[in-house]
Specification:
The complex is a heterodimer of chains A (454) and B (492).
Chain A (H helix, E strand, L loop, with lengths): L1 H15 L6 H11 L1 H23 L6 E4 L2 E3 L8 E5 L5 E5 L12 E3 L25 E3 L5 E3 L17 H37 L5 E3 H20 L2 H8 L3 H29 L8 E3 L2 H13 L3 H11 L5 H11 L2 H14 L3 H8 L4 H13 L1 H24 L10 H9 L5 H29 L6
Antiparallel strand pairs in A: 1-2, 1-5, 3-4, 6-7, 8-9
Chain B lengths: L1 H28 L4 H10 L9 H14 L8 E5 L12 H14 L2 H19 L13 H19 L4 H17 L7 H16 L9 E5 L5 H7 L9 H4 L12 H36 L4 H15 L2 H12 L25 H39 L2 H8 L4 H13 L1 H7 L2 H7 L2 H6 L5 H10 L3 H29 L7
Antiparallel strand pairs in B: 1-2
Helix pairs in contact in B: 1-21, 2-3, 5-6, 5-8, 6-7, 11-12, 11-14, 11-18, 12-14, 13-14, 14-16, 15-16, 17-21, 18-21, 20-21
Classes of the chains: A mainly alpha (454), B mainly alpha (492).
């Protein structure tokens, strides 16, 4: 109680001292009051840390190894092999990914906390070894002994002998990155489109007839030169690497924007003619609202499954983009409603009368005040993106077959119900993560609700 | 009001058209050739080059029947270098190879010449019968081997576009042609291919790719046919007869498939909504009316956990525990009825009774998430309504607490959960993909997954279209219901 009083008095002091009232600071202060949400926020940070360092805490390649006088850091190394000169003068080649590290005669060796990789099999413990069951280990002498505690499969193994704990840690990275990155795409689209729809409405974006028609025509041509002509370059990029895909897409987008700018200038020129100089309204709100209506009238999971079925390459990046492109509607609707309200407030009128440009008004003045409901939707959206990803991997549609995720582990558990650890732990991981995001969303909503701030 | 409804329905139409178009775009870009699957799966011989004449004819028949030999839409955005007739090439990889040539060289005339000469070469080597005098020195199997090799090379040449690959293939074929004298009749045809290829590369005009053009195809296109039918020959069209076309997998009309599958999905979604309302309203009201009580706290926590529970996990856990011979074998793990079906002449009630153990577990999975959502919504709206003035008035009148809550407060708090009611029918068509797959329920959800796995795109377009329509209808109905329940809302 005493703590709270001090904190409140701090905020009051800050307000009275005339310093800027920091929206985010206040939000966090309100958010902290909800203990459950606050703990889930902390739990989330732990999850993110696990996701980031997962390649180094769950791998069969040791973090450090000293073998025949040579120092190696296989887990951190970018190259995949190391040549070692033996005393006899021959060269011994150690390939990091296939070396049998656990039976290597190394003078010092430090393994990762979980000394197994997610998609590599431990053949000695294949065929569903239980976490509390008997696990075998072949030691350096080639004798089969009881599993040393250091190398135990703490959460059991799958049919092929893959370590479940390692799969879970690897799955954390995949689930969180899909959840967060797809929401980055969705919130960018949702906030920008929602803000435009709400701020401009149908009768506020005024332009000349010349610019309107020229831009409409320019959009078609921009698509043509940006994407249609380059379609083969883009589809070829998918079979090389995700970095080239990104590069090609950026090139396409640059061409797209360049053509649009060109046609904007052309439209301005056209505007010199009296016919093209007539003012027209762009029905921004109608267009965006129809777009939202189309997307929400299709069942999300079926839409995502059918789009990912036509993707040539099945990759997690594809899935991320597809989820992002289909789930922005909720964020857009909330932002739109908020902007409808804001665009009529006095301070926006004031900003307009001071001659600020529209871009600045929308993103600098209106957005910070209109973003709050979207933040709640984003938190819930991450939860649902994670659910979609795990459901798809569970069904085995649209995700690469060799990637170990929570959903794929869970579906492996369906084949053998006696392997309860394959059902329980991945399911628990999905459940906990989704719960954490939902709690976070609830906490944010409560913190943002002025009625609750007593 | 009627004016409002008519206006809303008019807005539906373009939205629905865009949805069908989206389905079309997905189906056109889908990998794999549906006709190839249909024909080869029935005759079990998909080896390269071994396509019999009857198979080719059958393929042509099905292409024609399904309208796949038509352009996709009324018009398309292409470049000057593109011919209007590229859609006539059936084979997808062959089409892609030609499109790549156009992209690289931009001279359709030369490309067509090359492609024609290559086709001629392929046909001539398919029909080729070696002179019996010349092959005397070879073993019969060796000759067959050589001919097969040639056939394979020629067919793969048709689908390749990379200059280095083509060069290697050409070299291989020339090697074959020149080292075996009995193949010499084919030589002249192949020389023409090489000539035309060189000509194509020489006369490249790739700049033509950068000049856009809109190609018009008229009414003879797949989309028009899908909407209006082809005059009743094969399909009647969606717009006037509700015909969704033919399934690529079973060759049945899509409408028949949907009709046979929708029953269970509809049953489960109705049952789950009914159960969800039955349980969630009392729980929501009780916890909302006694906010902060122990019941409220516990039920809120449980509901929140249920709300975050992934349905596939719960379903798997339920099967693992209650349909597992090692733990409790109380319920069957999959299906909706015994493998032998119902006994003859069973009444509806008897059928329900027989199916009951099959229904329990899926029904739980279907219900729990909407039940959690509804209870939470109910709780919030009860909390909001008990603070209103008219509740205070009701209490002041001396009504019992039960009457205040259950009669006065509940009626006003019901408004937000009307929306959920509008979602039943679209959910029935889409089905619950995951639950139906896990429990192998023969409903729309598992049918949709099956359709996606088998490239049965008419089915997917049908599902997207019907759900789109029903969702829009659902929104309209819930808006109208709002106006009926709440006199303060009017649409004027």
């Amino acid at each position: 109680m005493v703590d709270k009083k001090i904190e409140i008095s701090q905020v009051v002091e800050e307000l009275e001292s005339g310093k800027d009232f920091n929206f985010l600071k206040n939000l966090f202060f309100q958010f902290k009051k909800n203990k459950l949400a606050y703990y889930s926020y902390k739990f989330l940070i732990v999850l993110i840390i696990i996701a980031v360092v997962s390649p180094f805490i769950a791998t069969d390649q040791p973090l450090y190894c000293k073998y025949k006088g040579v120092n190696m850091f296989p887990a951190f190394s970018l190259s995949n092999s190391c040549e070692i000169k033996t005393e006899a003068g021959t060269i011994e080649l150690i390939q990091y990914d296939i070396a049998d590290w656990k039976r290597l005669e190394a003078s010092t060796i430090i393994f990762a906390p979980v000394a197994y990789s997610a998609n590599k099999s431990d053949y000695d413990n294949a065929d569903y070894v239980s976490p509390n069951g008997k696990q075998l280990f072949i030691d350096k002498a080639g004798k089969t002994v009881k599993m040393p505690l250091r190398f135990r499969h703490w959460l059991g193994t799958s049919k092929a002998g893959e370590d479940v704990l390692s799969g879970l840690i690897n799955g954390t990275r995949i689930s969180l990155s899909i959840g967060i990155l797809s929401m980055v795409i969705a919130s960018f689209l949702g906030i920008v489109l929602g803000a435009m729809a709400g701020y401009y409405g149908d009768r506020k974006l005024e332009t000349t007839r010349g610019i309107f028609w020229s831009m409409l025509f320019g959009l078609i041509l921009a698509y043509y030169y940006g994407f249609y002509v380059r379609s083969f370059s883009i589809s070829d990029a998918f079979s090389t690497s995700s970095l080239t895909v990104l590069f090609q897409l950026i090139v396409s987008l640059c061409i797209f924007c360049f053509v649009l700018v060109l046609f904007f200038q052309f439209g301005k020129l056209l505007g010199r003619m009296p016919f093209f100089n007539k003012r027209v309204f762009v029905p921004v709100d109608s267009i965006i609202s129809r777009l939202i209506e189309i997307l929400i009238s299709m069942p999300l999971l079926i839409l995502i499954i059918s789009i990912s079925a036509i993707a040539k390459e099945k990759s997690m990046i594809n899935l991320m983009v597809i989820i992002g492109l289909t789930t922005w509607t909720g964020i857009a609707r909330l932002t739109r409603a908020e902007f409808l309200r804001i665009s009529n407030l006095e301070y926006i009128q004031a900003a307009k009368s001071m001659g600020f440009n529209e871009f600045r008004i929308i993103f600098k003045h209106a957005l910070p005040n209109g973003i709050a409901p979207a933040m709640v939707a984003i938190a819930f959206g991450v939860a649902s993106a994670i659910l979609i990803e795990s459901a798809l991997s569970f069904l085995g549609i649209g995700v690469p077959a060799d990637t170990v995720t929570w959903g794929s582990l869970l579906s492996a558990g369906r084949e053998q119900f006696s392997a309860w650890w394959l059902v329980l732990f991945p399911g628990l991981a999905i459940f906990l993560t989704v719960t954490v995001y939902n709690l976070l969303g609830e906490g944010l909503r409560d913190a943002l609700d002025p009625k609750q701030n007593r | 009001m009627i004016q409002y409804i008519v206006k809303r329905i008019l807005i539906f139409i373009p939205t629905l058209l865009v949805i069908t178009l989206l389905g079309f775009v997905i189906s056109v870009n889908a990998p794999g050739d549906p006709v190839e699957r249909m024909v080869t799966s029935s005759q079990n011989s998909g080896e390269v080059g071994s396509q019999s004449k009857s198979q080719l004819e059958q393929k042509k028949f099905w292409r024609n029947k399904l309208g796949l030999d038509l352009p996709v839409f009324y018009f398309s955005l292409t470049s000057v270098s593109y011919p209007d007739t590229l859609y006539k090439i059936y084979d997808k990889s062959e089409k892609e190879a030609l499109a790549r040539f156009i992209h690289m060289y931009g001279n359709w005339k030369e490309i067509e010449m090359y492609s024609n000469s290559l086709n001629r070469f392929c046909i001539s080597q398919l029909e080729f019968v070696a002179d019996s005098n010349l092959i005397k020195q070879y073993d019969e199997n060796a000759v067959l081997e050589i001919l097969n090799q040639l056939r394979f090379d020629a067919l793969s040449l048709k689908t390749s576009f990379d200059p280095s690959v083509i060069k290697a293939k050409n070299k291989e074929i020339i090697g074959l042609l020149s080292s075996y004298s009995f193949l010499s009749p084919l030589k002249s045809n192949f020389e023409k291919v090489i000539q035309n290829y060189a000509l194509m590369q020489q006369n490249a005009s790739a700049w033509k790719n950068y000049i856009p053009r809109i190609a018009f195809y008229g009414f003879k296109n797949q989309y028009h046919r899908w909407l209006f039918g082809d005059g009743g020959e094969f399909s009647k069209g969606l717009l006037f007869h509700g015909d969704f076309g033919t399934s690529y997998v079973t060759r049945q009309p899509i409408s028949d498939v949907i009709y046979s599958k929708i029953g269970w999905s509809l049953f489960f979604s109705m049952l789950s909504v009914f159960l969800a309302y039955l349980i969630s309203i009392p729980i929501g009201v009780k916890s909302g009316a006694n906010r902060g009580s122990r019941f409220d706290k516990i039920s809120s926590l449980v509901l929140f956990l249920l709300y975050s529970m992934p349905s596939f996990w719960l379903a798997t856990l339920l099967i693992m525990t209650f349909a597992n011979t090692d733990v409790f074998a109380w319920f069957p793990a999959s299906g909706v009825k015994p493998a032998l079906g119902y006994p003859d002449g069973a009444s509806f009630l008897q059928m329900i009774k027989i199916s009951f153990p099959y229904i329990v577990l899926p029904a739980i999975c279907y219900t729990y998430s909407s039940f959690a959502f509804l209870s939470r919504t109910m709780r919030v709206s009860i909390i909001e309504s008990v603070n209103q003035d008219y509740i205070r008035t009701a209490r002041a009148k001396g009504l019992t607490e039960n009457k205040v809550i259950w009669k006065h407060s509940l009626r006003n708090a019901l408004l937000p959960i009307i929306t959920v009611f509008a979602n039943i029918f679209p959910a029935a068509i889409g089905g619950s993909v995951i639950i139906e797959t896990i429990f192998t329920i023969p409903g729309m959800g598992s049918e949709t997954v099956f359709a996606i796995q088998n490239n049965n795109y008419p089915m997917i377009i049908a599902v997207l279209t019907i759900t789109g329509f029903l969702t829009l209808l659902g929104y309209l109905i819930s808006d109208i219901l709002y106006a009926i329940v709440d006199p303060r809302i009017s649409y004027k």
